[in-house]
Amino acid sequence: MKYIGSQPITEQRNDKTANLDEMSVQEIIRIMNAEDQTVAISVQRALPQIEKAVEAIVEVMSKGGRLFYIGAGTSGRLGILDASECPPTFGVSRHLVTGIIAGGEAAIMTAIENAEDDAEAGAQDIEACLTADDAIVGIAASGNTPYVIGAIRRAREMGALTASVSCNAATRLSEAAQYAIEVPVGPEVVTGSTRLKAGTATKLVLNMITTTAMIKLGKVYGNLMVNMQATNEKLRDRVVRIVSDATGAEPSKAAAYTEQADGDARVAILMLKFAVDSVKALAVLELCNGHFGDAVRMLEKER
């Protein structure tokens, strides 16, 4: 881990914001914006690490394994946020991607800061849900959180695939994981407040992990969310647009087929593209384990 004196970089004072409390509102938001712009560059430097981790995670998930995130505080909440958005966005089971936070559900809304110091609790939380067929990503801005390190070490002993995301270099968490992702973002605008740049960097990396995994698992067609769940009027309209974009059908025709498909964009698209009924479309999707691209290719071969 990179240190200045006895503290990691994420805990150090930022010279650019030493007089933060004396700045005007305009000055504060300008410097925050300027610092935030450095985050994307830091993530860019970590792309080779991210690539290796995502490829390994995709391999696990393509064989039926699940993905777990585990973290404390902001890191844990970001993992839960990313996991909770996968079912509505990609139409997957809520059990496919799961977020775990130190201190349990109460810690989602209320800070339970001492929970992060218990390495054995992290190990026990993982033992309760993980199998050797799964993948887990430990998240810790400092890279030194005992709860997360304990979880990753136990997961590795169990034979699961382990990865990590931290915002310092050469951390203890990185040493514990098989695939380490390090995004050093430097000192925060407010000293030690890793909900800022470190939190932003973490969110960007988690976006990459699950989005790329879902694309490779066939939950996206082109760049269209064909697996999304249409749970309200706005999303039902979006499904119709997706069907229209994917097939070139007029919106009215796309809407009619979407209704026949019970709101499932995948089924409606297959019906329109290959002149099959919903029963056939669903059967092909099942044969392809829900991989939409494979379903398209199978029907193309049957033409």
Automatic annotation (TrEMBL):
<feature type="active site">
    <location>
        <position position="116"/>
    </location>
</feature>
<dbReference type="InterPro" id="IPR040190">
    <property type="entry name" value="MURQ/GCKR"/>
</dbReference>
<comment type="subunit">
    <text>Homodimer.</text>
</comment>
<protein>
    <recommendedName>
        <fullName>N-acetylmuramic acid 6-phosphate etherase</fullName>
        <ecNumber>4.2.1.126</ecNumber>
    </recommendedName>
</protein>
<dbReference type="Pfam" id="PF22645">
    <property type="entry name" value="GKRP_SIS_N"/>
</dbReference>
<keyword id="KW-0119">Carbohydrate metabolism</keyword>
<dbReference type="InterPro" id="IPR005488">
    <property type="entry name" value="Etherase_MurQ"/>
</dbReference>
<keyword id="KW-0456">Lyase</keyword>
<dbReference type="InterPro" id="IPR001347">
    <property type="entry name" value="SIS_dom"/>
</dbReference>
<dbReference type="InterPro" id="IPR005486">
    <property type="entry name" value="Glucokinase_regulatory_CS"/>
</dbReference>
<dbReference type="InterPro" id="IPR046348">
    <property type="entry name" value="SIS_dom_sf"/>
</dbReference>
<comment type="function">
    <text>Specifically catalyzes the cleavage of the D-lactyl ether substituent of MurNAc 6-phosphate, producing GlcNAc 6-phosphate and D-lactate.</text>
</comment>
<feature type="domain" description="SIS">
    <location>
        <begin position="57"/>
        <end position="219"/>
    </location>
</feature>
<comment type="pathway">
    <text>Amino-sugar metabolism; N-acetylmuramate degradation.</text>
</comment>
<comment type="similarity">
    <text>Belongs to the GCKR-like family. MurNAc-6-P etherase subfamily.</text>
</comment>
<dbReference type="GO" id="GO:0016829">
    <property type="term" value="F:lyase activity"/>
</dbReference>
<feature type="active site" description="Proton donor">
    <location>
        <position position="85"/>
    </location>
</feature>
